[in-house]
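Q: what sequence does this backbone want?
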């Protein structure tokens, strides 16, 4: 599999981004672009060839054209699509020898991200995002989200107010990140047979806990949400993550609490309620057990450091 790897935290330089529709008898002219081009197809079909390799693009498809290769249209057709012309100092072309190797590496990166401390850059720098040469976005909601981001990028690029190129690049980078995530989700479905049967459940549990951490969470609620036995879920969760479900939940909540203590004027009672603890005294005990100091001591120590 051929793919392009970029840095998620480094914005691409967008030459232009726009939407168009081609109709017969138009055929893409032969050219070597000198910059990367991404096509995102909204409707119809497009027939291309790049250095002798043929591509048929259909609705929901994404294709990355290389700046140093020659591409040409091979057949007239009707096709509606977005096109993004960009440069980046942080993009590299790669080719995997074995099927699934890229997905496995991306999966490890996702695991690292899910385990990282909330609002910390410790696991966010040098994070790669991967765009395969040609792939299909299966989820219609993701398709719609990407198309909306590209619409916003196009709008920003034409407004030419201060910072307009940066705004455009931000929207495009968001779209690229969604594309990369979508690819991994599709690959996980393909490789389901090579992973433990409980692996997808653990992934869904992690994502759910990161989203619902501020709400009341119990073993009974988890059984209702996921339709399984809590003890079994807890065992497989620890097997994959090294933590029990509630230890993981506690770490997520305390990470959010630290940010609120440091960067908002909230009182401690407001902080504990915001992160899922209705009782301030219990919150203080959990905070001290997790961090080694009380919330008040943590706040004071941080102010002293500043």
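A:
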């Amino acid at each position: 599999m051929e793919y392009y790897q970029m840095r998620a935290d480094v914005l691409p330089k967008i030459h232009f981004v726009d939407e168009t529709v081609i109709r017969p008898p138009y055929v893409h002219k032969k050219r070597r672009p000198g910059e990367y081009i991404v096509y995102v197809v909204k409707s119809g079909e497009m027939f291309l060839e790049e250095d002798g390799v043929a591509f048929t693009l259909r609705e929901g498809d994404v294709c990355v054209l290389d700046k140093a290769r020659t591409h040409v249209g091979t057949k007239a057709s009707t096709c509606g699509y977005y096109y993004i012309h960009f440069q980046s100092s942080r993009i590299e072309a790669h080719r995997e020898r074995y099927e699934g190797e890229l997905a496995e590496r991306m999966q490890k990166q996702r695991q690292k991200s899910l385990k990282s401390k909330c609002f910390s850059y410790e696991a966010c720098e040098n994070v790669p995002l991967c765009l395969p040469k040609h792939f299909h976005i299966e989820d219609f909601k993701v398709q719609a989200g990407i198309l909306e981001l590209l619409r916003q990028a196009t709008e920003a690029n034409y407004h030419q107010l201060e910072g307009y190129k940066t705004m455009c690049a931000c929207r495009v980078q968001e779209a690229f990140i969604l594309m990369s995530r979508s690819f991994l989700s599709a690959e996980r479905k393909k490789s389901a047979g090579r992973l433990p049967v409980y692996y997808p459940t653990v992934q869904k549990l992690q994502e759910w806990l990161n989203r619902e951490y501020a709400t009341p969470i119990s073993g009974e609620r988890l059984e209702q949400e996921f339709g399984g036995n809590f003890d079994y879920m807890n065992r497989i969760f620890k097997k994959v993550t090294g933590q029990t479900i509630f230890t993981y939940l506690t770490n997520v909540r305390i990470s959010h609490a630290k940010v609120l203590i440091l960067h908002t004027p909230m009182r401690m009672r407001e902080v504990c309620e915001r992160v899922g603890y209705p009782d301030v005294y219990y919150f203080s005990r959990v905070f001290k057990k997790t961090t080694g100091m009380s919330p008040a001591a943590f706040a004071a120590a941080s102010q002293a450091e500043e």
